[in-house]
């Protein structure tokens, strides 16, 4: 059997691309190694409303809780509260999100083969042979939407992400957190190289996701999770709670310089389309997916390899111009963050704790585009910015 497009990975990004291509009449197949999409869960499910606007179906019903602000805990115990005035983020049902994406892909006419792990791929001029645990077939185009540890990226020698975060989390019942606020914990002894989080996922704060990512530590993430669960600020909301399950996974950071090679493309986590400041990959991946759909649906009508590759390269140029530039800027912010000591983080949070800065962050802060706030502060409040930016940029 020969398909026009073969997609490795039935995550939300691969499924969105599959549905979009099928809708445009492109004969598309998705291979997903697991029996069910969305499982095992590797996500905290915190997104902005932009993610819902990028789904091609009504998705408001997937929202579990609306988040209005953040409490940031410094490594030395200082607490900074930001926002609270309007909805900044949404906690979504990630498993239902992936299922809805699969239903969309199937409804539009894509074939979705579950329980089909792609084991081998070989490229022959204008065709890629794909061998899965159950099938052997070929496609004219191949898309690697197979997540952080992408086999497509490895087999076809694409560049690797700049770094990986190792993550772990728990879902808890019977918590008593303020439902309006996420809580963020910073510090080398809490989550070296990243941060830990509490996300209340019900409007009364009675269920929560608690987790963290680490980068440069020899100790496993579980070591930090156990400590986090004993942190007094966490215990405050978990005294009567029970852990219902563990989640985990890896997050790739640093968008790839190359995401197209002849008739092969990478998208989503496979292309490290992930926000380096928050680890969120849904918004950048879904944003890039639309360029992937456009480029392939143009390329299918072309005959010569040169024209085809040129059409596909438009995908890389377009997503880089759109979200890629932001990801590169955020990678710079991350590199600054990585150099901060616990003392400096504490000092920065204390400096930020002034009404005008907090109002500005609440008004202009954007989880998807952190650069907007930095640029706004430098342009409109240079003196205020100067009072804490040196902590970030002078060592
Ligand atoms: C702990 C954690 C918390 C996170 N929290 C958030 C958050 O709050 N907000 C947010 O926006 N993002 C978050 N992310 C990131 C987000 O989960 C990813 O960016 C998103 O899932 C990327 O989607 P994807 O479709 O590219 O990849 P994935 O969702 O990883 O899907 C890839 C799919 O490919 C399949 N696959 C892999 N190899 C093969 C193979 N050989 N054959 C067949 N199938 C294969 C996998 O089974 C998987 O289903 C988090 C990630 C982690 C690890």
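-> sequence recovered:
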């Amino acid at each position: 059997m020969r398909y026009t497009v073969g997609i490795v990975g039935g995550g939300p990004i691969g499924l969105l691309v599959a549905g979009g291509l099928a809708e445009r009449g492109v004969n598309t197949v998705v291979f997903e190694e697991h029996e069910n999409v969305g499982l095992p869960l590797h996500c905290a499910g915190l997104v902005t409303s932009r993610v819902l606007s990028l789904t091609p179906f009504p998705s408001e019903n997937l929202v579990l809780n609306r988040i209005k602000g953040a409490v940031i805990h410094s490594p030395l115990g200082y607490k900074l509260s930001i926002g609270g005035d309007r909805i900044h983020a949404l906690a979504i049902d990630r498993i239902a999100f992936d299922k809805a994406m699969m239903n969309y892909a199937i409804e539009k006419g894509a074939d979705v083969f579950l329980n089909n792990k792609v084991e081998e791929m070989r490229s022959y001029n204008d065709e890629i042979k794909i061998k899965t645990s159950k099938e052997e077939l070929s496609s004219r185009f191949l898309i690697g939407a197979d997540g952080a540890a992408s086999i497509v990226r490895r087999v076809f020698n694409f560049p690797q992400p700049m770094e990986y975060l190792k993550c772990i989390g728990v879902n808890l019942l019977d918590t008593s957190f303020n439902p309006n606020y996420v809580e963020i914990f910073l510090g080398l002894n809490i989550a070296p190289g990243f941060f830990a989080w509490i996300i209340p996922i019900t409007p009364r704060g009675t269920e929560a996701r608690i987790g963290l990512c680490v980068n440069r530590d020899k100790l496993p993430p579980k070591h930090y999770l156990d400590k986090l669960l004993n942190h007094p600020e966490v215990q405050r909301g978990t005294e009567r709670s029970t852990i219902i399950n563990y989640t985990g996974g890896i997050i790739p950071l640093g968008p790839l310089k190359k995401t197209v090679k002849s008739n092969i493309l990478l998208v989503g986590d496979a292309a490290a389309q992930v926000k380096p400041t928050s680890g969120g990959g849904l918004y950048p991946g879904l944003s890039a997916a639309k360029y992937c759909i456009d480029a392939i649906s143009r390329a299918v009508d072309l005959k010569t390899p040169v024209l085809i590759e040129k059409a596909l390269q438009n995908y890389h140029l377009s997503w880089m111009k759109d979200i890629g530039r932001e990801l590169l800027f955020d990678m710079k912010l991350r590199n600054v963050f990585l150099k901060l000591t616990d003392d400096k983080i504490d000092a920065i949070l204390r400096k930020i704790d002034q009404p005008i800065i907090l109002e500005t962050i609440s008004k202009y802060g954007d989880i998807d585009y952190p650069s907007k706030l930095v640029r706004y502060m430098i342009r409109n409040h240079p003196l205020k910015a100067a009072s804490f930016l040196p902590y970030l940029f002078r060592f």
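The two ends are 60 Å apart (CA to CA).
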